[in-house]
TrEMBL record:
Record protein name field: GNAT family N-acetyltransferase
Annotated ranges, domain N-acetyltransferase: 1-154
Top-rank lineage group of the source organism: Bacteria
Matching CDD domains: NAT_SF (cd04301)
Organism name: Streptomyces kurssanovii
Entry-linked InterPro entries: Acyl_CoA_acyltransferase, Bact_Acetyltransf, GNAT_dom
Entry annotated with the keyword Acyltransferase: yes
Keyword Transferase found: yes
Length: 160
């Protein structure tokens, strides 16, 4: 089930986020940069704000948050800022369902295009996004150590 996150989901989302980030950052950047107390507090506060604004979706399996996605407008462009799936749920369709729910929300809102940044060492996520129609931003392909990808939102469900 995909649903809008509530404040009661904050602890589960923050824990899932930390677990997922460790899988792709560990060994590439210092642990403190993605898993230290200050970073955990910063990301938790970010999730709390996004949940309060109604910009977070949860994928629930067996009563547990199995994945989460956050999106919103940044500098006039719809941005998928987070999409995380609990590693134990990888390859089970959770990410695909979350992605489809995001695309449907964008389509209903008349959003023509979306943007995201993905850590360039996270090949698994890059493959996921490519499979779902994301492509390198032709004007700005890189932001630091993150690739910038774009997605053209289909005008209707037949375009998915």
């Amino acid at each position: 089930m995909i649903r809008t996150a509530t404040p009661a989901d904050l602890d589960a989302i923050a824990a899932l986020h930390a677990e997922a980030r460790a899988t792709y950052y560990r060994g590439h950047i210092p642990d403190e940069a993605f898993d230290g107390p200050a970073e955990r507090a910063r990301t938790r506060a970010g999730w709390e704000r996004a949940i309060g604004q109604g910009r977070v979706l949860c994928a629930e399996r067996d009563g547990v948050v199995a994945g989460t996605a956050a999106f919103g407008e940044v500098d006039g462009v719809m941005t998928l800022s987070q999409l995380h799936v609990a590693p134990a749920r990888w390859r089970a369709g959770v990410g695909t369902e979350l992605h489809a729910a995001c695309v449907e929300a964008w389509r209903r809102a008349g959003v023509p295009e979306a943007r995201l940044e993905v850590f360039q060492e996270n090949k698994r996520a890059q493959a996921f996004y490519t499979h779902h129609g994301w492509y390198p931003d032709p004007e700005e392909p890189l932001a630091g150590d993150h690739l910038i990808l774009r997605f053209t939102v289909p005008a209707d469900e037949r375009g998915r």
